[in-house]
Amino acid sequence: MSHLTIIEQLDDPEEARQSGRKKIEWARQHMPIMTAVAEEFGAEKPLDGEVIAMAMHVEAKTAVLTEVLAEAGAEVAITGCNPLSTHDDVSAALDANDAITSYAKREVDEEEYYAAIQATLEHDPTVTVDDGGDLVMAIHEDYPELIDSIVGGCEETTTGVHRLRAMDDDGALRYPMFAVNDTPMKRLFDNVHGTGEASLSNIAMTTNLSFAGKTVVVAGYGYCGKGVAMKAKGQNAHVVVTEVEPRSALEAHMEGYEVCPMAEAAEKGDIFVTTTGNRDVIVEEHFERMADGVVLANAGHFNVEINLDELDDLAVSRREVRDGVEEFELDDGRRINVLADGRLVNLASPVAMGHPVEVMDQSFGIQAVCVREMVENGDAYDAGVHDVPDDLDREVAEIKLAAEGVEFDGLSDEQVEYMGSWQHGT
């Protein structure tokens, strides 16, 4: 390989491996869905002979998914999908598995980041599992010869699905991909509760500040924005929502939040959280209106939502005032604090642990059964973006409910017939 694995880059790989193994074991004991999937996969080996390339946030919960795919018979090559979200000890623990090669390392530059993605592709994958779309883009741009042997893949996050749908609309996506982000078991839990809880908890831990009594500005009222707004409100913050989509703005208004343009919100906010997946959400005109001491955080996938170039141009100085907090001082003395270099705060801040274990258990359960579906029934899917089959989504929900000891009703035969018929009238 032209790129070093994580083990080859660490001063004390054995110590790191042991530390990472503890994190993985803790996560796994709180992931009943993945435990059930692992039992099935380990017995049936549905991925025997497959090679899986992964670009993910390499931390403990992701490691559980990675190991379960390996236990199903696959060879796995994994790297990070963000330069700051990898836990090196977890990466080392994965690389110690004979069936897994990990190239993921924290705090890499852009060249190292993309070299690691390319390294996973040198394993000649038959399946891809991506978070953000960079892996799929690299295949289409730099390794098109792999496309004919790839049966399909899965995309984890909102930004990645947006990119894939744009590719699909242009006729550029040349193998089938499941939009895991868009299925209910992902959106309703990971995006809402996971992003909401993890973003706010990591902002609090990074800054040691409270939300109570503050004004929190949430940019974007999609599923992630809803989660951040709801959790901030639950911590006694006043929440202001900014939106560009009229129905989402109306929904936020009807749910009791103040809604206004960012130019107005910039004058009101104490803490700003971007959740749009788009660029230039907070820019120069907004920085100029902000109060001294505001905190800016991004919960979107890429570090483009807060325009740091424009902020840097306005600043007369910048310095790190806490681990993961960079202060930009403007010429009038106002200070604007940016968390985690504008990268996704729930994973890239120095104290970040990502989404709660139980939430990621659901998302990775979907990923696992979708990989199985692509391997077993890939011929049924044309090149392009596909919704996760509803029976797979329900399968994971039922596993979770059983693990929680929650019983629920079912339809009678008469109810099924009634709901499926158009002939019943008044």
Automatic annotation (TrEMBL):
This is Adenosylhomocysteinase. May play a key role in the regulation of the intracellular concentration of adenosylhomocysteine. One of its GO terms (cellular component) is cytosol. The gene is ahcY. It holds the Pfam family AdoHcyase. PROSITE patterns: ADOHCYASE_1, ADOHCYASE_2. NCBIfam families: ahcY, PRK05476.2-3. NAD(+) binds at residues 157-159, 191, 220-227, 243, 278, 299-301, 346, 355. It catalyses: S-adenosyl-L-homocysteine + H2O = L-homocysteine + adenosine. Its cofactor is NAD(+). It comes from Natronomonas salsuginis. Keywords: Cytoplasm, Hydrolase, NAD, One-carbon metabolism. Residues 191-352 form the S-adenosyl-L-homocysteine hydrolase NAD binding domain. Substrate binds at D131, E156, K186, D190. SMART domains: AdoHcyase, AdoHcyase_NAD. Its EC number is 3.13.2.1. GO terms for molecular function: adenosylhomocysteinase activity. It comes from the Archaea. Binds 1 NAD(+) per subunit. Pathway: Amino-acid biosynthesis; L-homocysteine biosynthesis; L-homocysteine from S-adenosyl-L-homocysteine: step 1/1.
